[in-house]
Amino acid sequence: MSSAPFAKIVLSVDATEAALDAARYAIALAKAYGAQLHAVYVVNERMLEELLSAKVFVQDEEVDLEHDLEEDGRRYLDAVERLARDKGLVITTELLKGVVHREVVDKATQLNAGLIIIGEIEEPMSRRDVYFDEGEMILRRAKCPVLTVKGEEIVRSLYEDT
Amino acid sequence: MILERIISSERVKIWDTEVDKWTAIDDLADLMASSCDGCNREVLIDDTLEREYKGSTGIGKGIAIPHARTTGVSSLVGALGISRKGIDFEGEDGQPCHLVFLILAPPEESTAYLKALSAVAFIAKDEAIMSRLKSATSPEEVMQILEQVESGNH
Fold first, then answer.
1. Model confidence over A105-162: pLDDT tens digits?
2. B67 catalytic residue (yes or no)
3. Interchain CB distance below 8 Å, A125 and B1
4. SS in 3 state form for B1-40?
5. Which residues, 6+ apart, have CB-to-CB distance to B40 below 8 Å?
6. pLDDT tens column, A56-87
7. Which class for A77: exposed (0-12), middle (13-18), buried (19 or more C-beta within 10 A)?
8. B54 touches A at CB < 8 Å
9. Better pLDDT: B46 or B120
10. SS3 string of A124-151?
């Protein structure tokens, strides 16, 4: 096993296929380098609060959607855990709430992680994303190296070979 | 970009005559039902109205964003209505509403729904963009504006 400049990796998971590819890559990397992997999903409370304060949402609607986002998060974290288990890797997972990039960066700092892994940063989906893309914010604010995972075929092949 | 992806020219309505908020929602629901695969008009309008009864989706400054998560649609979809005369959407500021964005998503698409509403709320803050949309004379012009807005070339 090679030594690596990271003993702990934080994986940022959102409810996308890109996040699952990031998970596959993170699992392969954690296995190859004997690193601990901690996967986090952050419920985007900032967006919910913005929509509540803009009067788009009423209170019970915000609560319902937050609940469903938590369920999404648990489902995706379970999927990541299964991907790891299939490769004989035990990982830890955590569901957080707040400002996505802040929670991910803080978690990496708290764990003294040497690497943050995120899914591919896609083209902005809206004008809001141009200013507030959480992946880009993680890249800017992280205090350790950040790896963005691209190339579905390469990643899946790497995972299969792990 | 999300708005030009979910709103198409077939789902843009321009009202030159006076309409009330219920007619506006009804008209936009019609556009959804006639232009989206897998849409169930009765279900989507019931869910939209149920949300509207909980509180007006008029967010002020002449904009309303009626919305719902509903089994009446099979994917995230949007429609836009433009009223020349203004609609009383019973919003807090009491101003007549000129732009009505109807946003619907299936119950399981929580994240995409949140992002779409957030995108609409974000551009709704830009008075220059809203003014251009309000003055648009055709669905095609609306789509051009949305495209320019979301790509930042406006």
1. 999 999 999 999 999 987 666 666 666 788 999 999 999 999 999 999 999 999 999 9
2. yes
3. yes
4. CHHHHHCCHHHEEEECCCCCHHHHHHHHHHHHHHHCCCCC
5. B33, B71, B72, B73
6. 999 999 999 999 999 999 999 999 999 999 99
7. buried
8. yes
9. B46
10. CCCHHHHHHCHHHHHHHHCCCCEEEECC
